[in-house]
């Protein structure tokens, strides 16, 4: 089997970092910049904070990320999520607050997105070999046998006692929400510590906290998945910009491309004609869940979803290289590109 894997030639989101043209007018401590780059949660993470004692805060952020990675890993046998997934079926398992909160949020989003985002997708992610980079095309019989295990309505969660119960064989995957959760937690922490300005990037998940230190908005570019630079350039403050795309992790077999975003209703990689979905939202975990869910839904259902909720903005790029954009972003389309505006 031809099993080429592909590094995430991910959509690099261009971040324009603060430009200290006017440093002299600020107390020097204010423009102190501290940053770190680490590889964790299967992705490159970069953290930058502006302000006094930023170094210590960044170290605390790094420790938090490693703790979450330890709890949420689907492959480490000592992780909490692994233990929950492998526990004997129909037995209560005690959870940490972090796992319980992300599970609670995920179950809510599974409901809101009508199961297009589903944290019980793991048996299928595993069957397609996306966990260990051992890619394969499962047989229809295998997919059929796994589909009944993908159903978040069967998860029992007891938030009062922080415990959960899964049916036998069900396994959880926080891969489509964890990075957003971490971005939200880190920015809450930094705000509590008195920081006003930070830039957090976890793979394709960006969170731009506050304004730049010169008082202007952040400028975030959403890249064309087919190359050629930014198709949309948004000015934001306290927003997450999250992208999901089929080209981020995939393999080819017999001329077919299979990617890591799975349609929970068919068990196959979601092919709806979309190449990427970017979400701009106040909450990074909302954007993370939605970018995955809308990628699975396809353009038409995504438009209906946006019209119903209207609490996020979105940019869709189709496999025909057409761009669709929600109306509040109509002004943000980069020059040289045309987009269909969604009202
Ligand atoms: P990335 O992690 O590459 O930024 P996503 O946020 O879209 O991309 O998450 C994709 C990951 O989420 C997959 O690698 C898999 O672990 C998991 N996943 C795949 N399909 C779904 C789905 N329909 N619902 C929830 N999680 C999914
Ligand atoms: Mg996601």
| Helix percentage range | 25-40%
Low-confidence stretches: 1-29
What value does the average pLDDT take? 91
Radius of gyration of CA atoms, rounded to a whole number: 20 Å
**Which structural class do you get from the secondary structure elements?**
alpha+beta
How many helices in DSSP terms? 8
Strand content: 25-35%
Ligand list: adenosine-5'-diphosphate, magnesium ion
How do the strands of the widest beta sheet line up side by side?
2-3-7-8-11-14-15-16-17
Basic shape: globular
Query: What's the number of extended β-strand segments?
Result: 17
How do the helices and strands follow one another from N- to C-terminus? Answer: EEEHHEHHHEEHEEEEEEEEHHEEE
How far apart the termini lie comes to: 45 Å
The major sheet is characterized as: 9 strands, mixed
Walk me through the structure:
By secondary structure, this protein is α+β, with helices and mostly antiparallel strands. The chain has helices at 54-72, 80-86, 97-112, 122-127, 140-146, 178-192, 284-297, 299-309, and strands at residues 14-15, 33-40, 43-50, 93-94, 156-158, 163-165, 197-202, 205-209, 218-223, 230-236, 239-245, 250-253, 256-259, 274-281, 313-318, 323-326, 339-342. The strands form four sheets. A nine-stranded mixed sheet has the order 2-3-7-8-11-14-15-16-17. The chain has a three-stranded antiparallel sheet with strand order 1-9-10, with no helix packed on it. Strand 7 (197-202) and strand 8 form a beta hairpin. The relative contact order is 0.15. Adenosine-5'-diphosphate binds next to helix 7.
Give the key terms.
globular; binds magnesium ion; 9-stranded mixed sheet; single chain; alpha+beta
């Amino acid at each position: 089997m031809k099993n080429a894997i592909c590094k995430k030639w991910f959509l690099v989101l261009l971040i324009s970092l603060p430009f200290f043209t006017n440093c002299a007018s600020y107390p020097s401590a204010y423009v102190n910049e501290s940053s770190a780059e680490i590889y964790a949660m299967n992705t490159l993470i970069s953290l930058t904070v502006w302000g006094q004692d930023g170094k210590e805060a960044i170290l605390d952020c790094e420790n938090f990320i490693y703790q979450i990675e330890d709890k949420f890993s689907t492959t480490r046998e000592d992780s909490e999520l692994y233990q929950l997934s492998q526990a004997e079926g129909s037995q209560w398992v005690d959870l940490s607050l972090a796992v319980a909160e992300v599970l609670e949020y995920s179950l809510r989003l599974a409901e809101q997105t009508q199961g297009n985002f589903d944290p019980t997708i793991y048996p299928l992610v595993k069957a397609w070999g996306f966990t260990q980079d051992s890619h394969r095309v499962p047989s229809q019989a295998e997919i059929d046998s796994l589909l009944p295990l993908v159903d978040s309505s069967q998860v029992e969660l007891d938030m009062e006692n922080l415990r959960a119960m899964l049916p036998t064989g069900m396994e959880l995957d926080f891969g489509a929400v964890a990075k957003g959760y971490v971005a939200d937690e880190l920015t809450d922490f930094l705000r509590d510590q008195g920081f006003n300005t930070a830039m957090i990037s976890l793979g394709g998940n960006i969170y731009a906290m506050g304004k730049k230190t010169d008082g202007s908005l952040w400028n975030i570019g959403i890249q064309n998945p087919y190359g050629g630079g930014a198709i949309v350039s948004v000015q934001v403050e306290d927003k997450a910009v999250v992208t999901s795309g089929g080209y981020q992790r995939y393999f080819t077999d017999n001329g077919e491309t299979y990617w890591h975003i799975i349609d929970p209703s068919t068990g196959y990689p979601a092919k709806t004609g979309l190449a990427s979905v970017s979400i701009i939202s106040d909450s990074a975990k909302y954007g993370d869940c939605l970018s995955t869910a809308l990628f699975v839904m396809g353009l038409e259902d995504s438009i209906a979803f946006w019209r119903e909720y209207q609490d996020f903005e979105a940019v869709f790029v189709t496999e025909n290289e057409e761009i669709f954009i929600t109306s509040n972003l109509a002004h943000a389309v980069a020059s040289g590109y045309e987009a269909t505006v969604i009202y």
